[in-house]
Amino acid sequence: MKKNLQYTTQGTCSKMINIDVENGKIIGVDFLGGCHGNTQAVAALVRGMDIDEAIGRLEGIDCHGRGTSCPDQLAKALRRIKQL
Fold first, then answer.
1. CA-to-CA separations, 73 to 29, 33, 62, 63, 76, in angstroms, rounded
2. What is the pLDDT of residue 76?
3. What number does CATH give the domain 2-83?
4. CA torsion through residues 56, 6, 71, 30, sign
5. Given this model, what pLDDT does residue 28 score?
């Protein structure tokens, strides 16, 4: 089953994350805003990964004491897409 989510981030330089998931695997991630090289790298690294594995690796990563980060926001978005 294919799912898509546009997730509005909070507390990060990126403003939105577009995510495509199929059968529990991440098939595409696109960040709007943020540190372009870093967000491209995160998106490439999670492509093909199981949702739960990505959440486990990304959740709780902090950026400059903000209490969140682009990877952490991606983990939150992945939790949300699991509920769809």
1. 12, 13, 10, 11, 5
2. 98
3. 3.30.390
4. positive
5. 98
